[in-house]
Amino acid sequence: MSLDTGRPERVSLTESINGRHHRAALNLFMIVVLAHWAEHLTQAYQIWVMGWPVPESRGVLGLAYPWLVASEWLHYGYALVMLVGLWLLRGGFVGRSRGWWMVAFGLQFWHHIEHLLLFVQAQTSTVFFGQAVPTSLLQLVIPRVELHLFYNTVVFLPMVVAMYLHLRPNQAEAARMSCSCATGLTVAAAKP
Amino acid sequence: MTATARPARRSGWFGYLLAAVVCAVVVLAAVSDPPTAQVAQVSPADGAALDTAPADVVVTFDGPAVAREFHLSVVAAGGGPPVAAGPARLEAQRMVLPLSATPAGEYLAAYHVLLVDGQQLSGFSRFTVGTGMPPAPASLDTPSIVPGAHQHGSDDPVNLGLLLLDLVLVLVAAVVLLRRPKIRENRPWTYDSA
Q1: A188 to chain B nearest CA, in Å?
Q2: ipTM score of the complex?
Q3: Class of the B39-129 domain?
Q4: Which end of chain B has the lower number of beta carbons within 10 A, N or C?
């Protein structure tokens, strides 16, 4: 038997993030992700459109803070934020979107391990695998820049699919959704 | 006696693992904050006039230099074939570039190191071999970095292709976020996982 104390049931932070604050948390998370991509795309624009030398093409923040782009702290921190965000926000996803979101999480988990290897080497002033510079596992066969751009892409792709399916659910999925993203869901106009 | 129904426990093990990783990182950062290495010496020194060619050019640091990228090259001041006998290598506290037999003349050694904390070290050393004269004073247009000696980032087509794909994904994500969520009508060909 449970006692009705008259108080509202306590909701944990995770339940709150995946419940009535899921849309806001998802938006916040995506702003961070899109800002990261904006930096990469700005860098590409500087290289390919403006014709800047590669070393001078450091995106937006890198122009003001050149050390930031190369900082292992920054790269590891972003990998960790991605991992934590994907994990914390998973509860709001149902149906097909959940599967895609967890694919992104799985890939980011490995990406994070690679960054952790780099971070540990940087912090302890040691290098692994007999290399001259801090090196992650797959970096033994693929250059760092290409490898991590590939990682970021293959994590982002299933994230976008998951978000599309989450915010455009079918009727069965919509019925199972309990997060704030389901608030005000309307049926899309049927095509003739 | 009947068993009490308990709510299914949510899989929180990974959350604990993540928290442990975060704590470990904070501890690691607190106990190991490697000081930034500085260049202690370059050999041959800037302005040196050598009788015989050096076997290598060595940049020595005042502590362990954990670099993300490093570059060291030597060219003849008046142009000419490469004088390096192999790629530069980074050892614990020094960066070494082996040299091939270098004819008499003036040379410019340039280095650039990108440390893992984001700091950069760069400089150059001008020296002569077998001329009996020190190198001419550095002019204002003396390059601080030998052209082609280093390359950060990447501008290859693979990167460009990935970035174009990412641009499309960013636009799709922005549209999905900005538009009002809708329930899509089930169609006969639509997969329903529910």
Answers
A1: 6
A2: 0.85
A3: mainly beta
A4: N
